[in-house]
Amino acid sequence: MKNKNGIANIYLVLVFLVLYAPIFYLMYYSFNSGGTMHEFEGFTLDYYREVVADTRLMIIMINTLVIALLSSAIATLIAIIGALAIQHVRSRRAKNTLLSLNNVLIVSPDVIIGASFLILFTIVGIKLGFTSVLLSHVAFSIPIAVIMILPHLQEMSPTLTDAARDLGATRRDVLTKVILPIIKPGIFSGFFMALTYSLDDFAVTFFVTGNGYSTLSVEIYSRARQGVSLSINALSTLIFLFTILLVIGYYYLNQRKSRPAMHIAEQVAEAGVPR
Amino acid sequence: MKQLVNTFLAILIVAFGLMFLASRLNSAEGYSGGNTLTIYNWGDYIDPELLEQFQEETGITVIYQTFDSNEAMLTKVEQGGTVFDVVVPSDYAIAKMREENLLLPLDHSKLPNLANIGSKFMDLSFDPGNLYSVPYFWGTVGIIYNPEMTEGIDFSSWNSLWDKRLDNNIFLVDGAREVMGMALNSLHYSVNDRNEEHLQEALAKLNRLSPNVKAIVGDEIKMLLANEEAAVGIVWSGDASEIMDENDKLDYVVPEEGSNIWFDNMVIPRGAANIEGAHEFINFMLRPDVAAQNTEYVGYSTPNVPALDLLPEDISGDERFYPPAEITDRLEVYDNLGKRMLAHYNELFLKFKMNKK
Q1: In terms of domains, do B150 and B123 share one?
Q2: Oxidoreductase among the record's keywords (chain A) (predicted)?
């Protein structure tokens, strides 16, 4: 039994090594004064300076963050409504159909989604740029957020809402004081998932950028043709640190929020069941 | 609930703060002004200082966008939705864009610096009379090899690749035109040969090459060769110069039987908004001092003759990238073979790939 665990641990360590080694390799060479990813000659911060001095790159980086934050916030709001609606559907078959339709959007290839957005936007006459990128990011983030929120809704006991209604809570109270606090972990995970999807999406974004508006993934991809310059390493390091911060923030929120949610649930449960 | 609302408010505030910052940066750079020029070019394919210089000299603000393949660029230009004023496609893409009526004719009276381009690089099959395009950079297809691993084999002929000593030691780039062209050249035929017998001969010759071929790969060929995974590779000169930057043991040669010559060219796509500015930009890029500076930055071969004199001797005198006349005379541009012939080339190349064990 103990032996089995040992193998499992080694396996786990190996997997993490494989996943993280390239990232650390890349970060290590972002400090290389040699200018290539071959031999480490000496420590330098030149590439970080280059990134900060490159106004165009900074604008693109800000664009990427703005798109990620806005699109995942909007997508999460829509997904909350969507998840509630799906949960409300009585017929089992209709519910399953809706869920499958949601899942199809997640698994369908990005390239196809991107191309169809491009066609849609040009037909409707939306100019390619900020709006088109934002809209498409919102669109592909919604199904992901729905998937993250729905299980929390399904886990929630329906007696909770009934009890709250019995105790005289209005519809609004039920939503804001009972349902939303309970599904909060799902909302946050949905938001963060959407955020990461938006940050690194290339395929969809490539099709819908235009008029001087670009995001990091598109920019890095087209620069990579000439070999990846070390300033890209520096930039990637910065982004990696940023995402680590996000994860820590998410962890912190998760730690704090599960307690109050339980608290309310308990309160309602206690109040709802008279002794 | 309160926490949810607060978090979302915080996200919105941060997002709008960043947006404000971006718009400040944008206007500081002049991107939101009226007189702008949108350029669509390959990634990292121009010296950024030149864009600033152009801006200072003309007052036109440049919006610069990048793509990574001709196909991707074609999709964006065809679909519309974005206005591009200057685009830099490769030769065969220009032929295609011309056929599909996606290009605006150039006004040569506004391009006096066109005279700087060497006559060898003008009036080529993809754009007779240079009605639509102006050469930007050019290059060749050739052999990159590692002298330490090839026991002094002389690569000045394509036929050296068939040497028994190179067993399982060659990487080919995954392109039907490149590989078929190489085989045709080795038989002293044209890279645009349409003669069925010649093509079958080339296929048979390729099949005899397969014991030497380690793999047929895409863009990763650069990394594989720089890491010395094989001794020899068939690559474009642009890739070769990058590989040699990474690993200076390697050397590049254009075989004497001839080879392909490729071009990236500046064109003005239909629907351009600032046609006047586009001409100004193209003329600016044709200036010898500008072309020389750009060549030093990008590292490909320039078609600009006076610019060569301004370049350091170790660039302009490098015969690997500026081959002597007896070789350049034998270099050929890929003709547009037409759909059926191209399909045939692809089919033959596929047969070769399938035969390879």
Answers
A1: no
A2: no
Of A118, A176, A222, which is closest to B66 when you measure between CB atoms?
A222
Q: What is the pTM of this model?
A: 0.69
Q: The CATH number of A56-271 is which of 1.10.600.10, 2.40.50.140, 3.90.1720.10, 1.10.3720.10?
A: 1.10.3720.10
Q: Which of A38, A187, A256 sits opposite B246 (nearest CB)?
A: A38
Q: Are residues B197 and B102 in the same domain?
A: no
What is the rounded distance in angstroms from the CA atom of residue A111 to the CA atom of residue A206? 9
CA distance B357 to B162: 16
- Give the closest-approach CA distance of B152 to chain A in angstroms: 26
Distance CA A160, CA B258 (A): 81
In a domain, B234, yes or no: yes
**Domain limits of chain A?**
56-271
Residues in chain A, overall count: 275
Q: Binding site for spermidine: what residues of B are annotated?
A: 92
Domain that holds residue B173: 139-261+323-355
Interatomic CA distance for residues B85 and B54, integer angstroms: 15
CB < 8 Å to B48, chain A: 56
Q: Which residue of A has its CA nearest to B49?
A: A54
* Structure confidence by residue, pLDDT tens digits, A52-74: 888 878 888 888 989 999 999 99
For residue B22, give both structure tokens. 């971006």
Same domain (yes/no): B306, B287: yes
CATH number for the domain harbouring residue B232: 3.40.190.10
What span, in angstroms and rounded, lies between the C-alpha atoms of A119 and A47?
39
Within-domain flag for B2: no
Residues B216 and B285 in one domain: no
State the distance between the two ends of chain B, measured CA to CA, in whole angstroms: 64
Please list the residues that pair with B251 across neighbouring strands: B145
Nearest CA in chain B to A177: B1
- Based on the fold, state whether residues B240 and B334 are members of the same structural domain: yes
Distance CA B187, CA B192 (A): 13
Residue B7 domain-assigned?
A: no
Tokens (6 digits) for A211: 């008029």
> Is A55 close to B11, i.e. CB distance below 8 A?
no
Does B255 share its domain with B162? yes
Whether residue B145 is found in the same domain as residue B273: no
Residues in binding site of B: 92
Residue B153 located in a structural domain: yes
Of A77, A223, A260, Cβ closest to residue B43: A223
Answer yes or no: is the ipTM higher than 0.90: no
The count of structural domains within chain B is 2
Tell me if A181 and B1 make a contact (CB, 8 A cut-off): yes
Residue of chain A with shortest Cα separation from B65: A212
Mind listing the pLDDT tens digit of every residue in chain B (357 residues)? 777 888 888 888 888 888 888 888 877 766 655 688 889 988 778 888 899 899 889 988 888 888 877 877 888 888 776 788 999 998 888 988 988 899 999 999 999 999 999 888 888 888 888 999 999 999 899 999 998 888 788 888 999 999 888 888 899 988 888 899 999 999 999 988 889 999 999 999 999 998 899 988 877 788 888 888 889 999 988 888 888 888 888 999 999 888 999 889 999 998 888 899 999 999 999 999 999 999 988 888 999 999 999 998 888 888 888 888 888 888 888 887 777 888 898 899 988 988 776
Token pair for B161: 């690749």
Q: Indicate whether B255 and B287 sit together in one domain.
A: no
Q: How far is CA A55 from the centre of its chain?
A: 26
- How far off is chain A from B355, nearest CA to CA, in Å? 31
